[in-house]
Amino acid sequence: MPRSIEYKQTRNQTVLQMRKDGHTLQSIANEFGCTREWIRLILKNEIGITQKYKFDSKKHCKADEYSAQDIVELTGYHLKYISILIKEDQIPIVSRIEKRHKGINGYFWKKTDIDKWIELKIKYLKIALEGYITTRLVGYPIKGSEYYAKYKITHPNIQKRYKLLLEIQSGNWKGKLSYRSQRNDLIMKEFYGDIKPFDYIAKDYSKYLNQKTKEDYAQKGLFNSMTTAKEIQMHQKTIVKFRKKGILKEGIHFIKGDHYYHRYMYYPEKTKQAILNGGYDVAAAARRKRIWAKKNAALEDF
């Protein structure tokens, strides 16, 4: 029996309204007991809608909820990364899933949960940034060497993190939490109360902000071992050997610098004279220099 005009109008209005409300073709088809293709034809031929359906998560997000897109804007994470966090249980549990839409855009979280989670992310991000900065300012041992790698706060890698740290500390953190701090597990443990919460206390980097540069030392007649070796025409190893023997005195012949490349800063002429007075054999050094020059020449000819 043919459907009446009134029935078709009512049906089409219902289909259109459901589509506007965010229903997929399949969910509308389930409501009418037909196929999704039949619903698509009704929308196309009788209502004139041909564009693909796009789910607006914000439109369906309740006042006390965050959508996945909200979390993207808050954290700076890519939408795909949030899917990874869900799979690895490194984000609060989803409070509601909009079944009319497949995929993460249909997921919603309680604002209170995400706000707490973000608060913890900010705290642990500050700790991660400070850990990187402090380790390099204080210095860490170089594998297979007696020296420590130590950087000034002006180093580009430190500046990148220091500026981010200052921004976050000032409250300007939105969209800037995607730094991979590898502390997601700790965040979730504190979130669920598995570890004792603690207050964050910011580190003071003021003493590093006015470190001297190579030019500052040069104005006082101080140079690193490489420059000093060239100036006094002696090998760097010679300078180090006489310093370790105690012939070169701190405060007289050298001072300790405040940077990896400025570990020891020397007064060239005073250093040279102290080495000569300490028994440096100029003739033997000249012979060694000639021998090495011959060996190098032979290697080049070979």
Please describe what this structure looks like:
The structure is a single chain. With 302 residues, the chain is mainly α. It has 3 domains: 5-47; 56-210, no CATH class; 214-301, no CATH class. The protein is built from 13 helices and 7 strands. The strands form 3 sheets. The chain has a 3-stranded antiparallel sheet with strand order 1-3-2. Strand 6 and strand 7 (264-266) form a beta hairpin. The longest helix has 28 residues, at 111-138. The chain starts with a helix and ends with a helix. The model has no long low-confidence stretch (mean pLDDT 86).
- Fraction in helix: 40-55%
The major pleated sheet works out as: 3 strands, antiparallel
Runs with pLDDT <50, length 5+? none
How many distinct folded domains? 3
- Taking all Cα atoms into account, the compactness measure Rg is 35 Å
Question: What is the terminal separation in angstroms?
Answer: 103 Å
The tally of strands reads 7
- Sketch the topology as an H/E string, one letter per element: HHHEHHEEHEEHHHHHEEHH
Shape: elongated
Characterize the quaternary organization of these chains.
single chain
Structural class: mainly alpha
Instruction: Give me the side-by-side strand order of the main sheet.
Output: 1-3-2
Mean pLDDT rating: 86
**SS field, number of helical segments:** 13
Beta content comes to: 5-15%
